[in-house]
Amino acid sequence: MFNFIVSLLKSMFSIIFKKQKDVIFTLLLLKKENEIMKRHLNLAGKKTSSNISDRFCLSLIASLSKRAINHLTIVKPETLLEWQRRFIKKRWSFKHKKRGRKPVTADLKNLILEMKTDNPLWGCRRISDELKKLNIDIHHTTVNKIIQTFRKQGKIQSNGSWKKFLKSNWDSLYGMDFMTIDTLFGKRFYLLIILELKSRRIIRFDLTENPCREFVKQRI
After folding, report:
1. CB of 191 closer than 8 Å to CB of 207
2. What top-level branch of life does the organism fall under (predicted)?
3. Per-residue DSSP letters for 153-214?
4. What's the gap between Cα 48 and its chain centre?
Protein backbone atom coordinates (compact mmCIF):
# COMPACT_ATOMS: atom_id res chain seq x y z
CA MET A 1 0.00 0.00 0.00
CA PHE A 2 2.83 2.37 0.88
CA ASN A 3 4.62 1.66 -2.42
CA PHE A 4 1.41 2.36 -4.33
CA ILE A 5 0.96 5.74 -2.64
CA VAL A 6 4.60 6.65 -3.33
CA SER A 7 4.31 5.76 -7.02
CA LEU A 8 1.04 7.71 -7.26
CA LEU A 9 2.63 10.81 -5.74
CA LYS A 10 5.58 10.51 -8.13
CA SER A 11 3.20 10.34 -11.09
CA MET A 12 1.29 13.38 -9.87
CA PHE A 13 4.47 15.44 -9.37
CA SER A 14 5.69 14.35 -12.79
CA ILE A 15 2.46 15.49 -14.45
CA ILE A 16 2.51 18.82 -12.58
CA PHE A 17 6.13 19.43 -13.48
CA LYS A 18 5.49 18.63 -17.14
CA LYS A 19 2.60 21.06 -17.26
CA GLN A 20 4.65 23.77 -15.57
CA LYS A 21 7.51 23.12 -17.96
CA ASP A 22 5.24 23.48 -20.99
CA VAL A 23 3.77 26.69 -19.58
CA ILE A 24 7.21 28.16 -18.92
CA PHE A 25 8.53 27.34 -22.40
CA THR A 26 5.33 28.57 -24.03
CA LEU A 27 5.75 31.92 -22.27
CA LEU A 28 9.37 32.10 -23.36
CA LEU A 29 8.30 31.34 -26.91
CA LEU A 30 5.65 34.04 -26.92
CA LYS A 31 8.09 36.52 -25.35
CA LYS A 32 10.61 35.82 -28.09
CA GLU A 33 7.98 36.25 -30.78
CA ASN A 34 6.90 39.56 -29.19
CA GLU A 35 10.53 40.72 -29.23
CA ILE A 36 10.85 39.89 -32.92
CA MET A 37 7.61 41.66 -33.78
CA LYS A 38 8.63 44.83 -31.85
CA ARG A 39 11.97 44.87 -33.62
CA HIS A 40 10.29 44.86 -37.00
CA LEU A 41 7.47 47.34 -36.35
CA ASN A 42 9.17 49.84 -38.63
CA LEU A 43 8.93 47.35 -41.51
CA ALA A 44 5.22 47.85 -42.04
CA GLY A 45 3.81 45.94 -44.97
CA LYS A 46 6.93 43.83 -45.30
CA LYS A 47 7.53 40.22 -44.31
CA THR A 48 8.81 39.77 -40.77
CA SER A 49 12.34 38.38 -40.87
CA SER A 50 14.42 36.72 -38.18
CA ASN A 51 18.12 36.45 -37.61
CA ILE A 52 20.21 33.43 -36.65
CA SER A 53 19.89 34.17 -32.92
CA ASP A 54 16.07 34.28 -33.16
CA ARG A 55 15.94 31.02 -35.09
CA PHE A 56 18.25 29.32 -32.62
CA CYS A 57 16.18 30.42 -29.61
CA LEU A 58 12.87 29.36 -31.17
CA SER A 59 14.31 26.00 -32.24
CA LEU A 60 15.78 25.41 -28.81
CA ILE A 61 12.49 26.19 -27.01
CA ALA A 62 10.50 24.01 -29.39
CA SER A 63 12.92 21.09 -28.95
CA LEU A 64 12.58 21.31 -25.15
CA SER A 65 8.78 21.45 -25.24
CA LYS A 66 6.82 19.89 -28.09
CA ARG A 67 3.57 21.50 -26.95
CA ALA A 68 5.05 24.97 -27.28
CA ILE A 69 5.16 24.55 -31.07
CA ASN A 70 1.36 24.81 -31.14
CA HIS A 71 1.61 28.46 -30.01
CA LEU A 72 3.81 29.62 -32.87
CA THR A 73 2.36 32.54 -34.81
CA ILE A 74 5.08 34.17 -36.91
CA VAL A 75 6.44 30.95 -38.46
CA LYS A 76 5.02 27.56 -39.33
CA PRO A 77 6.05 24.44 -37.35
CA GLU A 78 7.49 23.02 -40.59
CA THR A 79 9.74 26.07 -40.90
CA LEU A 80 10.94 25.59 -37.33
CA LEU A 81 11.77 21.93 -37.99
CA GLU A 82 13.68 22.99 -41.10
CA TRP A 83 15.73 25.40 -38.96
CA GLN A 84 16.54 22.59 -36.56
CA ARG A 85 17.72 20.38 -39.44
CA ARG A 86 19.93 23.19 -40.70
CA PHE A 87 21.49 23.69 -37.25
CA ILE A 88 22.23 19.96 -36.97
CA LYS A 89 23.64 19.80 -40.50
CA LYS A 90 25.86 22.82 -39.89
CA ARG A 91 26.96 21.43 -36.53
CA TRP A 92 28.19 18.14 -38.00
CA SER A 93 29.42 19.38 -41.36
CA PHE A 94 33.17 19.70 -40.99
CA LYS A 95 36.03 19.50 -43.39
CA HIS A 96 38.08 16.36 -43.23
CA LYS A 97 41.09 15.13 -45.04
CA LYS A 98 40.46 12.65 -47.77
CA ARG A 99 41.68 9.27 -46.60
CA GLY A 100 42.55 6.22 -48.59
CA ARG A 101 45.44 4.50 -50.22
CA LYS A 102 48.19 6.62 -51.66
CA PRO A 103 48.25 6.68 -55.46
CA VAL A 104 50.65 4.20 -57.01
CA THR A 105 53.63 5.93 -58.59
CA ALA A 106 54.65 5.39 -62.20
CA ASP A 107 57.95 3.81 -61.08
CA LEU A 108 56.12 1.21 -59.01
CA LYS A 109 53.77 0.42 -61.89
CA ASN A 110 56.73 -0.06 -64.22
CA LEU A 111 58.37 -2.33 -61.61
CA ILE A 112 55.21 -4.47 -61.46
CA LEU A 113 55.19 -4.60 -65.27
CA GLU A 114 58.83 -5.72 -65.31
CA MET A 115 58.22 -8.41 -62.67
CA LYS A 116 55.20 -9.76 -64.55
CA THR A 117 57.05 -9.73 -67.89
CA ASP A 118 60.09 -11.56 -66.49
CA ASN A 119 57.91 -14.03 -64.54
CA PRO A 120 54.75 -14.73 -66.56
CA LEU A 121 53.51 -17.38 -64.12
CA TRP A 122 53.57 -15.04 -61.14
CA GLY A 123 50.16 -13.92 -59.98
CA CYS A 124 49.18 -10.72 -58.21
CA ARG A 125 49.64 -12.29 -54.75
CA ARG A 126 53.14 -13.52 -55.58
CA ILE A 127 54.15 -10.10 -56.93
CA SER A 128 52.69 -8.43 -53.83
CA ASP A 129 54.68 -10.77 -51.57
CA GLU A 130 57.89 -10.14 -53.50
CA LEU A 131 57.40 -6.37 -53.23
CA LYS A 132 56.99 -6.68 -49.46
CA LYS A 133 60.54 -8.10 -49.36
CA LEU A 134 61.61 -4.73 -50.79
CA ASN A 135 59.59 -2.91 -48.07
CA ILE A 136 56.91 -1.95 -50.60
CA ASP A 137 53.51 -2.56 -49.09
CA ILE A 138 50.87 -2.84 -51.81
CA HIS A 139 47.74 -4.96 -51.73
CA HIS A 140 47.38 -7.79 -54.23
CA THR A 141 44.07 -6.37 -55.52
CA THR A 142 45.88 -3.15 -56.49
CA VAL A 143 48.55 -5.20 -58.23
CA ASN A 144 45.85 -7.07 -60.11
CA LYS A 145 44.24 -3.82 -61.30
CA ILE A 146 47.60 -2.55 -62.55
CA ILE A 147 48.27 -5.82 -64.39
CA GLN A 148 44.81 -5.76 -65.99
CA THR A 149 45.40 -2.17 -67.14
CA PHE A 150 48.72 -3.14 -68.75
CA ARG A 151 47.04 -6.16 -70.34
CA LYS A 152 44.36 -3.95 -71.91
CA GLN A 153 47.10 -1.66 -73.20
CA GLY A 154 48.80 -4.65 -74.84
CA LYS A 155 51.96 -4.40 -72.70
CA ILE A 156 51.38 -7.84 -71.13
CA GLN A 157 50.54 -10.79 -73.32
CA SER A 158 48.12 -13.44 -72.17
CA ASN A 159 49.69 -16.67 -70.90
CA GLY A 160 47.01 -18.82 -72.48
CA SER A 161 44.00 -20.62 -71.12
CA TRP A 162 43.93 -23.13 -68.28
CA LYS A 163 43.28 -25.87 -70.85
CA LYS A 164 46.50 -25.01 -72.69
CA PHE A 165 48.44 -25.02 -69.43
CA LEU A 166 47.16 -28.51 -68.53
CA LYS A 167 47.92 -29.80 -72.01
CA SER A 168 51.51 -28.49 -71.98
CA ASN A 169 52.26 -29.83 -68.46
CA TRP A 170 50.12 -32.97 -68.47
CA ASP A 171 53.10 -35.36 -68.17
CA SER A 172 54.27 -33.78 -64.90
CA LEU A 173 51.02 -33.08 -63.04
CA TYR A 174 50.00 -34.96 -59.90
CA GLY A 175 47.08 -34.72 -57.55
CA MET A 176 47.21 -35.21 -53.79
CA ASP A 177 44.57 -35.41 -51.10
CA PHE A 178 43.50 -37.08 -47.86
CA MET A 179 40.59 -39.41 -47.33
CA THR A 180 39.27 -40.68 -44.00
CA ILE A 181 38.83 -44.27 -42.89
CA ASP A 182 36.73 -45.01 -39.80
CA THR A 183 37.20 -48.34 -38.02
CA LEU A 184 34.51 -50.51 -36.48
CA PHE A 185 35.35 -49.15 -33.01
CA GLY A 186 35.15 -45.47 -34.07
CA LYS A 187 38.85 -44.78 -34.58
CA ARG A 188 39.68 -42.55 -37.54
CA PHE A 189 42.68 -42.83 -39.86
CA TYR A 190 43.74 -40.45 -42.62
CA LEU A 191 44.90 -41.90 -45.94
CA LEU A 192 47.22 -39.74 -48.06
CA ILE A 193 47.02 -40.51 -51.78
CA ILE A 194 49.28 -39.11 -54.52
CA LEU A 195 47.83 -39.69 -57.97
CA GLU A 196 49.39 -39.27 -61.42
CA LEU A 197 46.79 -37.36 -63.43
CA LYS A 198 47.88 -38.69 -66.81
CA SER A 199 47.50 -42.39 -65.99
CA ARG A 200 45.26 -42.12 -62.90
CA ARG A 201 47.77 -44.38 -61.21
CA ILE A 202 48.39 -44.14 -57.46
CA ILE A 203 52.05 -43.21 -57.02
CA ARG A 204 52.10 -43.15 -53.23
CA PHE A 205 49.75 -43.74 -50.31
CA ASP A 206 50.25 -43.78 -46.57
CA LEU A 207 48.14 -43.96 -43.42
CA THR A 208 48.36 -41.78 -40.32
CA GLU A 209 46.35 -40.77 -37.28
CA ASN A 210 47.71 -37.22 -37.19
CA PRO A 211 47.88 -35.55 -40.62
CA CYS A 212 50.24 -32.57 -40.48
CA ARG A 213 52.56 -30.51 -42.63
CA GLU A 214 55.66 -32.50 -41.65
CA PHE A 215 53.97 -35.78 -42.56
CA VAL A 216 53.05 -34.51 -46.05
CA LYS A 217 56.54 -33.05 -46.67
CA GLN A 218 58.19 -36.31 -45.73
CA ARG A 219 55.99 -38.35 -48.06
CA ILE A 220 56.52 -35.94 -50.97
Report:
1. yes
2. Bacteria
3. TTSS-----HHHHHHHTGGG-EEEEEEEEE-TTS-EEEEEEEEETTTTEEEEEEEESS--HH
4. 47
Of 76, 74, 4, 90, nearest to 35 by C-alpha is 74
**In the chain, domain spans:** 2-92, 106-159, 165-219
Residues linked to residue 193 through DSSP beta bridges, in sequence order:
177, 205
This model's pTM is above 0.90: no
Render pLDDT for 12-30 as a digit per residue (tens, 0 to 9). 545 455 566 666 767 776 7
Rg (CA), the chain: 39
3-state secondary structure of 120: coil
Q: State the pLDDT confidence band at 156, using cuts at 50, 70 and 90.
A: confident
Write phi, then psi, for 116 (nearest 5 degrees): -70, -35
